[in-house]
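Please, structure for the following, as tokens.
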Amino acid sequence: MSPLPATIPALVRTRVRAAVRRPARRTPEESEARILLLRLCSLLLQYPDTELTTARTVLTATVEALPPSPAAEHLATFVTWFTGQEPEALERTYVEMFDLRRKSSLYLTYYLHGDTRRRGMALLTLNQRYRAAGWDTDGGELPDHLPVVLEFAALAGPGGGEAPLRQHRRGLELIHRALTDADSPYRHVLAALLTLLPPPTEADRAAVAQLVAEGPPNEEVGLDPYGTYGDGEFAPPGTFVPPAPAPPTRVPPASTSRTEGPR
């Protein structure tokens, strides 16, 4: 894979040690463009801290250099908005869209499993997938955080690397719908990502409609006795406790924080 502009790899913070396999059906140029699209989506869905906002000129140039595609068009629309906003406004928008709204949270297993024991097992399985590929996420985020899942997809390839994205297609559709309903510019990043995945089936559409109407599954039973995420202890056998909800991706300055809870 040809290198990205000098500042991009540092932002992506890759830590893969496994060999990356390229699908034979794509040309090297097509494979590189797909990897770059996934890495850009990962970056643009991260909290807009100083490191990211100061790289906006490079990000814009990288998006403009992409081969023409629907995904590239969506990302171009997004970075046009992104580069025109003040950093404080970007921070407020990000917190409001992704930290304070359940329907557009970036933690994918929530949409599939809700607040149930199954979510804890799904997180453990996802983390084990990363480790089996030789990838260490360093524990900075939960393994189902969408930017983390996208980074892994870019590094490990369209087979096993993109499998978590395909598995959580319905959650991604729900996030896109919520962002669209809120008229959020971030809808374009989700739209770009969805163009890279297989089209939704009728079952997918029905499941998304049900999620919109009913929300993810929920359990009212106590979960505390069953250990914590990643400790490898299960009691009773076959159960696993979901981790405590993660804090916001970053804590914005006091002037930009919001006080209301998730809606």
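Residues 12-24, 220-263 have pLDDT under 50 and may be disordered. Residues 248 and 256 are 13 Å apart (CA to CA).
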